[in-house]
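Feature request, filed as a ticket because there's no other form

It would be nice if the structure record came with a short human-readable summary line next to the tokens. Right now we just get the raw output. Example of a typical job, pasted below so the devs can see what we mean:
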Amino acid sequence: MRNTFTDSSMPKFAPKLQTRTDKLAILLSSMCVLHCLLTPILLIAIPSLAGVALLNDETFHRVMLFFVVPSGVLALAIGYSHHQKGGLAMSGLLGLVVLSSPFWLGHEYLGETGEVVVSVIGSAIIVAVHTINYRLGKRKPALPQ
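Raw output as currently delivered:
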């Protein structure tokens, strides 16, 4: 028997928490994409921004990962307990791994362009998965088997 919540056993806060964490993960992942794509343009247009700590790739990735990973895992776990879509949860975890890989692999291995490409791909996966997870969270829970 699967460990699934039914209408009566799901904690009352779970659907609202899933909705909020899905939206947070989408927002933060979108911010990663904007940061990766706009930072080079801003630095060319306004060179004095080069010293701004928020624009530093490593600092920005650390801060974002600190929030993206826990909120993403929580939303996926609650979503999985609701809709039982294991492939969706695994896709979300893949997105989190891809998004965090520039932090592990570093600039030396991926290069600047590689970091941007990998981060954008990871963010796109996360946004897509959390959008689906959010929509499935609005449906009735799966029946226990």
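Something like this underneath would help us a lot:
The helical segments are 14-45, 57-83, 86-137.
Residues 1-8 have pLDDT under 50 and may be disordered.
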